[in-house]
Amino acid sequence: MRNLRDSEFSRNQRRHGVGHLNPTEPRLGSFPEETPQEGDVAETGTTTIGIKTTDGVVIATDMRASLGGRFVSNKTVQKVEQIHPNAVLTLVGSVGGAQSFIRSLRAEVNLYEARRDEHMSMQALSTLAGNFARGGPFFAINPILGGIDEEGSHVYSIDPAGGVMEDDYTVTGSGLTVAYGTLEDRYEEDMSVEEARDVAVTGVRAAAERDTGSGNGVYVAEVTEAGVDIEGYENFEGV
Predict the structure, then answer these.
(1) Which of 44, 46, 48, 170 is catalytic?
(2) Closest Cα to residue 153, out of 179, 123, 118?
(3) Which residues of the chain have pLDDT under 70?
């Protein structure tokens, strides 16, 4: 009988130091010595605020995009966009990931409404957004979802792992610590949309004073039974 251990194939394995490996065992690859620098990715930095009222929802965001929080790459970024007839979503984290996330949600909402001939509820939309964040290729996002349906007004924060939390108000982004302080001091349960707008803008302005990733103005989205209205104000003038 031929000795397979003395075959040319076996000798080559031993020569290259691989003859001892078990082909059924998993093998670990090596990590690259250099990883992409954080500054290579355009990020929104950001302060985004969402407030729920009895009449609707107010979302406010700043306008600055940066590279790693060190260089301002754009001063007029619209970080809140309509994704539903009565809902908006903010952009937080990497610009590419956030934009892809919004496009995907819009497409799913349009398919839902085309198939069922009815608007998607905020509960269903928030669940879909959480599932996308958890299982999709969306890098480093932490958006706010705000909207209204037959059950009333809703504000959700969606974390990068897909967690969905509903609250009366929420803040995400690099300026959240400053903005939360403003909201804790000024928020009231019975605020009107106009009052919530003033509080949200004040929170974004306060964060822009201290957070290098936030600034250059504010976008304000109001979601009511009449629909969605989004306006931008550079350098907080005229808001």
Answers:
(1) 46
(2) 123
(3) 1-45, 69, 137-139
State which CATH number among 3.40.50.2000, 3.60.20.10, 3.40.50.10860, 2.60.40.1400 fits the domain covering 41-225: 3.60.20.10
pTM: 0.79
* Dist. CA 169–CA 153, nearest whole Å: 11
pLDDT at 48: 96
pLDDT of amino acid 15:
54
Angle at which helices 193-210 and 176-186 pack, to 10 degrees?
A: 140
Is 46 among the residues known to form the active site?
yes
Q: Which is nearest to 217 in space by CA: 227, 207, 229, 228?
A: 207
- Encode pLDDT of 137-177 as tens digits: 666 788 999 999 999 999 999 988 889 999 999 999 999 99
